[in-house]
Design a protein that fits this description.
With 461 residues, the chain is mainly beta. It has strands at 3-6, 14-17, 22-26, 41-46, 51-57, 60-63, 72-75, 81-85, 88-90, 104-109, 115-123, 138-140, 147-151, 162-170, 176-184, 194-203, 221-224, 229-232, 236-239, 246-247, 261-264, 269-272, 278-279, 286-287, 301-304, 309-312, 316-319, 326-327, 341-344, 349-352, 358-359, 366-367, 381-384, 389-392, 396-399, 406-407, 421-424, 429-432, 436-439, 446-447.
Length: 461
């Protein structure tokens, strides 16, 4: 920046110059004519406090430091601050975070992820740069608590290309966009404080139903009780089960892949392929495996209708049931943990633990809660066999199916949201909206994206 200042020099006056770059000073009197007043000492002081001393007498003057007498250009020494992320300059006052300059920390898993970005402060000026606050880097704004300065810069920063670095770690406290602002107080006179916006997105690990190969897609698959085999399209078939066993697929080890597993009511044991048998339940219990703890792995759980209680391994038991209720555990609040919930056909209310009841559905509807919009939380939803429509709270209705179809919602294309899908037992075909139609069924098969809500071996019966 270039400043032109006309000075009338009189005794004992201090003139503060604006910051930065080259100043052009006209030492001669502009108004009134003539020369500066005779006699007296004066000083010209830059805004960072560096005196430029001289004297005036009669028709002229002599500067003893800093400037050359007369009309001309002379430099003032200043620091000049530049902050960079990812090798790119972040302009002071920037309000548009971007992955390019590391001000956008990207999407981070709510339960187990963090992201750390390193930023560089460079001093391109010809005087050392001082970072003047404590701490030297401050974070404020709506979600400031999600961002932590995990390594501070040093001060002063040497002139003419000196650098220092600092680190910020993003650890989201909730799902969705998280925003804050970085502020660095300093003695660069036109960039103090140096501010810029940062952001990141908290995400929830989604447990894709029946994803037996870990590719993020729901697999078209069935369990055949007549021979105890699992038939998974594109993968093969596996013997795992006997007469009376109930299929309970789930990601029990948290590796992102659905495990083949059965619950055996005759002895209350869970048999997960590749793991030792585990006792959790009794003869008439309804298995309700889901990730209730939010640790990324499916938990063994049962609903015991005789006591009206849910028994969840590692969590204890909770009373949440009346006769005739249909259990519908799902992550309704998007916090990464499945919620205990039931649908009550007698009044068509949904009762999610910790939430107010919601009326959604009518007599004969089949509850099909899932994440239909990809926001990380389950929507309350029903399939109505009488008209083949899906009714999803907050989204609307969609026609996809006929009266005798079995709804088999799932994320069949791996895009993060649930597709409308039905299995038509009359022809053995799966109709997956906007994805595929495929034959994969024999009479008596149990479709694995479906939960057996009453432990009778029949989907939704």
């Amino acid at each position: 920046m270039v400043s032109c200042i006309s000075l009338f020099l009189i005794s004992a006056v201090v003139i503060t110059l604006p910051q930065n770059g080259t100043r052009v000073i006209d030492w001669w009197l502009i108004s009134g004519g003539g020369d500066p007043a005779a006699g007296g000492d004066y000083s010209i002081e830059s805004a960072i406090g560096e005196p430029v001393v001289g004297t005036s007498s009669g028709g002229g003057f002599t500067l003893t430091s800093g400037f050359t007498a007369g009309t001309g250009s002379s430099p003032i020494l200043d620091p000049e601050m530049d902050v960079q992320g990812g090798g790119q300059t972040i302009v002071d006052g920037d309000t548009s975070p971007s992955p390019t300059d590391d001000t956008d920390f990207g999407s981070i898993d709510l339960d187990s992820g963090t992201a750390m970005h390193t930023f560089t402060i460079e001093n391109t000026g010809d005087l050392e740069l001082n970072l003047t606050d404590s701490p030297k880097v401050n974070i404020s704004g709506t979600h400031a608590g999600d961002f932590t300065v995990t390594s501070l810069p040093t001060s002063p920063v040497a002139a003419s290309g000196g650098t220092t670095t600092f680190e910020i770690t993003f650890d989201p406290g909730a799902a969705g966009l998280r925003e804050a602002e970085v502020s660095i107080a300093n003695d660069d006179l036109d960039e103090n404080p140096y501010n810029f916006a940062i952001q990141g997105t908290g995400t929830v690990v989604t447990h894709t139903l029946a994803d037996f190969d870990g590719d993020g897609n729901t697999d078209v698959s069935v369990y055949r009780p007549s021979n105890g085999r699992w038939y998974i399209e594109g993968i093969g078939n596996f013997k795992w089960g006997y007469a009376g066993d109930l299929p309970v697929p789930g990601d029990y080890d948290g590796d992102g892949t659905t495990d083949i597993a059965i619950f055996r009511p005759s002895n209350g044991k869970w048999y997960v392929m590749g793991s030792a048998p585990a006792s959790w339940g009794a003869t008439d219990d309804i298995p309700l495996q889901a990730d209730y703890t939010g640790d990324g792995a499916a938990d063994k759980a049962v609903l015991r209708t005789s006591t009206k209680r849910w028994y969840i391994e590692g969590m204890g038991n909770t009373k949440w049931y009346l006769p005739g209720d249909i259990p519908v555990p799902c992550d309704y609040d998007g916090d990464g943990s499945a919620d205990i919930a039931i649908f009550r056909p007698s009044n068509n209310n949904w009762y999610v633990m910790g939430e107010s009841p919601v009326g959604w559905g009518q007599s004969g509807d089949i509850p099909v809660p899932a994440d239909y919009d990809g926001d990380g939380s389950c929507e309350i939803a029903v399939f109505r066999p009488s008209n083949g429509k899906w009714y999803v709270e907050g989204i609307g209705s969609t026609t996809w199916g006929i009266t005798d179809d079995i709804p088999v919602p799932g994320d069949y294309d791996g895009d993060g949201d649930t597709e409308y899908a039905v299995l038509r037992p009359s022809n053995g075909k799966w109709y997956i909206k906007d994805v595929i139609t495929i034959s994969w069924y024999a009479s008596g098969d149990f479709p694995l994206p479906v939960r057996d809500t009453n432990a009778d071996g029949d989907p939704y019966q």
